Amino acid sequence: MAPECPKQADPLFFYTSGRWLWNEDKQLQERFRYFLVPELQEAGRHAVGASRCLAITKIGEGNLNKAYRLEMDDGQIVVGKIPHPNAGPSFFTTASEVATMEYARSVLGLPVPKVLAWSASDNNPVGAEYIIMEEAKGTQLNRVWDDLPLKFRCDILRQVVDIESRLLSVSFQQIGSLYFKDSNVPGCMPAAPTAGSQKIVDQISSRFCLGPIARREFWENERAHMSQHQGPWTSASEYMVSVAQREMEWINLYGSSQLDSSLDVSKQFQFISSNQNSPDVHISALERYISAVPHLIPRDPTMTCPRFWHPDFHAGNIFIDEQNRISSIIDWPPLMLDYSVERRLFFPDNFKTLNEDEKNEIRYQVSQSILINSYETATAKINPVIHQKLHHPAGKTLKQLETFAGGSWDNCIFPLIECLLHVKR
């Protein structure tokens, strides 16, 4: 059992980046992770062969983990990463993240920090799963993005497209998470690339395997014991159907015992219809979802073959050097782009007559429109598969269906029903 989150916890363990308007104690508990600080320092020291770790500083925390800067007596610096309790299946998430980083770094040649030491179990001196890695080189892009000239921002976006191209250059026969072959992860299959150079295929086949998906929604509550719905899967259709089958099985087994939504503080401020607590209504909607999947999956195999992707590719996870070249990617479509603005590639004829606030708004719209156009043009040329997926008529619907089907009971059934009505029309 995880330690209780004390009211006055050490900031190293305690989430300090925000507050919650509801259920704050529970939210903080899900992000509180105690560990033995001297032992994490020792793990970092040992990883680089230093004599002593002089200091540890928390340098970042997201929804699922915290990162610590470890400074050694010889000047070396490494980063230690500790997952939160809400990160998902701790063994699988840690083992898969390490393998994916190594795959991106050593196989695809992407600028990813090298993992120096790691443990996917909390049965170690640190008392928690951890990753020790090189410190990301360069400056965090989100700190300088708005101040960069438009030309440099366009150049960086083209570099992002090139990185995406390398991620997409290898495809696989299964859908799941990547692991090292020697990690002894249960339920793994040989990683069988269907595209890529022979050198890359040999590297992957000799070092990696594909196993159960590490995404936390497949492991929440009693779903952790439903290994038959955790992959790997052999096709996009099999994966999509499995999401619904997982929820149907869970609802049949456990739904009736969890009908009292009044106990869930997170639902006290949202409307709950009688259908939300009806297993039959959920099962019926999920059956319609399963019937719709074959009609929505693209028939072109290049559109559905599994490929790796960075799930959190935003400016906070990208670092650049002094020449504005991408120097590091951490935390494995770019969010530097603001798709909410009105598309405007040219200044209006009356621009000179506008006041300064109006001019600044127009300047922002034009710069964002140019960036979006630059990214989409480069993507269409270099990564046509992604361009096709972004513009496939059923692409957005498929993603929404999967998300809503996987959370209809835990969240709300209305989005799933609405999406199914859209499909029917």
Task: Give a short synopsis of this structure.
By secondary structure, the chain is an alpha+beta fold. Helices cover 40% and strands 14% of the residues.
Structural class: alpha+beta
Which superfamily, in CATH terms, is the homologous superfamily of the domain at 1-134?
Phosphorylase Kinase, domain 1
| Tertiary shape | globular
User: Percent of residues in helical segments?
Assistant: 25-40%
Q: The CATH topology of the domain at 1-134 is what?
A: Phosphorylase Kinase, domain 1
Could you describe the largest sheet, including whether it forms a barrel? 5 strands, antiparallel
What is the C-level CATH assignment of the domain at 1-134? Alpha Beta
Return the string of H and E elements: HHEEEHEEEHHEEEEHEHHHEEHHHH
The parts where pLDDT drops under 50 for at least 5 residues are 333-341
**Alpha-carbon Rg, integer:** 23 Å
Distance between the termini: 49 Å
Q: How many distinct beta strands? A: 13
Strand content: 5-15%
Q: Report the average pLDDT across residues.
A: 88
CATH architecture annotation of the domain at 1-134: 2-Layer Sandwich
Number of helices: 13
Strand arrangement within the widest β-sheet reads 1-2-3-5-4
